[in-house]
Write the structure tokens for this entry.
Amino acid sequence: MSEVITRFAPSPTGHLHIGGARTAIFSWLLARHFGGRFYLRIEDTDLLRSKQEYTDAILASMRWLGLDWDGEPVYQTQRAGLYNSLVDSLLASGHAYWCECTPEEVEAMRESARSCGAKPRYNGKCRERGLGPGEGRCVRLKIPLTGKIVFEDMVKGRIAVDVEELDDMVLRRADGMPTYNMAVVADDNEMGVTHVIRGDDHVSNTPRQILIYEALDLPVPRFGHVPMILGRDRQKLSKRHGARSVMEYEQEGLLPQALVSYLARLGWSHGDQELFSRQELIAFFDGGNLNPAAAAFDPAKLEWTNAQFMRALPMDDLADLVAPFVRREYAEDGLDDVPQNRLVGLCLLFRERASDLLALARAFRPLLLPATRLVYSEKDAAKHLTETGKGHLRALMGILEACEPFEAASINRILNSYVADNNLTFKDVAPPLRTALMGFMGGSHLNEIMAFLGREETLARIRRACLL
Ligand code: GLU
């Protein structure tokens, strides 16, 4: 195959959402799989709704996801010359013509077509009039009167559209701006794009774009239209279904590789594999196996996917990743300066219990607070810090004071002997101890919690709990 060139072409009218991110992932993967190129094009021609801050946010989200693009992003607002030159050449070759029909006239034509049960369309009034340029005139493509546009979609298979269903579309508006279809064809051709992957909300534009390619005698790229991502109720995806923008996922502590793996699986499969490293995705994704049926977004599965990726990380890497969340979460408490080795210890204790970095950072709270600031759950304290419970805690204080070395294994041994020597079960001892150390009935293995806290802090917590 000749070089594969793909692109992602967002309109900067909002943040990058998961639908757009998935389109970007597929386009990026196809290029990377075939060792080709992946370009970014900012479709900013809607001057009212496009904002620089959205462009910046989209680029930041792409970077965070690791979707590196080749060259510099292309901005449509900077390419009027390219669009005009192609429109001019279509005029010169007789494939396009000037039209002076007003929007009201065109609407009336549509209405009259509708009233006879036909497709609403422009009736070709100016097609053979040989008009030249002039105020208020647009340029339209002179499409063939009969025939079919046929293309093999990478996702949907063969699509055939009768040209009689289409009309002489506008290429350049009366205000001189190119239409979306004209600009996209001009850009995709100029950028050498060989495969266009986009949302299937654009599938009805594709036959029109093919007509422009044909009129310009340019090679037509391959198209792949991926179905929308839906909510679990099969309705249009929104925040209410738990969907967030890519930037929000970053702030909530998702791992980019988890989001990429999850989104790639939404509409694509490779056997029954669920989790993919970046390298695996690049190796396996060749544009095949794209599902023509709409996939439903499942926040619980995304959370599960993220938890799996978090658990597979080397502990040092996880500590580095959680560090900014700890700084943010604990700045107000003055507890944000946690050394790396303590972060590693905390990650060891809690990573099986959190499914994102923010939840992980929050789980650290009871162990980061000093004994004096520990907050006790009223319910757990009332239930477990009873006189009997406190009796065990006092006895354990003496034993823990003497425990050498103060490490998880030796702490375990002395806890076991205390339970055995006094004919108790762990259920008698663990709840008061856990409530004393954590403030509530949560957390990891008690011996590991104590080893992490160290002797002094462990004893301070038990002492304070005994006084409650
Ligand atoms: N700018 C269009 C969008 O954001 C994409 C057009 C295309 O991929 O051809 O929906």
